Amino acid sequence: MKIVAFFIRHGETDLNKEDAFRGDLDVPLNEEGEKQAQDLVSMFSARSFSDAFQSDRLRVRQTLEPLMEAHDMVPKTLTNLESLNTGDLAGQPKDEKNLEMLKWYRDHPDEQIPGGETVRGFRDRVDPILMMIIRVGQESGKPVVACVHGSIIKELGRLLYDDIGSLKVEPGGIVAVFSTPKGYIAKPIFKDSEEAEPMPGS
């Protein structure tokens, strides 16, 4: 069993702290998010990567930038790695009413979120990119790193375990994907900023 990919959830923003939908909004990291970005440098100090990927949102680019500078790498920006576009929900609190509304659209993936996109369309653009990233790490012999959004981590859980909550991590968290004789598995190796498991070997 070897690690083929690391998926990093971008660091904290004020909207994360307020527990509000980010969606397509292009918000920056807050002070805690900037610290989380710097922490990635020491976490991955003994690691090398075959490639790196990111979405084009500011909070993602700010999260990955210190790690890329430390490794003298330039990440590839993939617009298909953008978060689920929650449309009119973006910036709104994740209260019971709004969460129930989003759940309805997840249960009806062909219905368009007002002002946003369909869950089916989101999955159609994200799933091939996720598998491409994993295969790059598999074929290169060294893991890749990708900085993404929470909704992308959820889709990775759905792809591998048919469960969008199976790989949940907080902002700044990390999920590792492993190649095994029976296929790919994944696990959170750093869920939040309070405590981390040791970075596993390949």
SSE layout and pairings?
Blueprint: E1 2-9, H1 14-17, H2 31-43, E2 52-54, H3 58-71, E3 76-77, H4 96-107, H5 119-140, E4 144-148, H6 150-161, E5 174-180, E6 183-190
Parallel strand pairs: 1-4, 2-3, 2-4
Antiparallel strand pairs: 1-5, 5-6
Total domains: 1
Widest sheet: strand ordering? 3-2-4-1-5-6
How far the N terminus sits from the C terminus, by CA atoms, comes to 8 Å
Largest beta-sheet characterization: 6 strands, mixed
SS class: alpha/beta
Structure explained in plain terms:
By secondary structure, the protein is α/β, with parallel strands linked by helices. It has a single domain, classed as Phosphoglycerate mutase-like (Rossmann fold, 3-Layer(aba) Sandwich), CATH 3.40.50.1240. It contains 6 helices and 6 strands, in the order βααβαβααβαββ. Strands 3-2-4-1-5-6 form a 6-stranded mixed sheet, with helices on both faces. A hairpin with a 2-residue loop joins strand 5 and strand 6. Helix 2 packs parallel to helix 3 and helix 5 packs across helix 6. The longest helix has 22 residues. About 3% of the residues have low confidence.
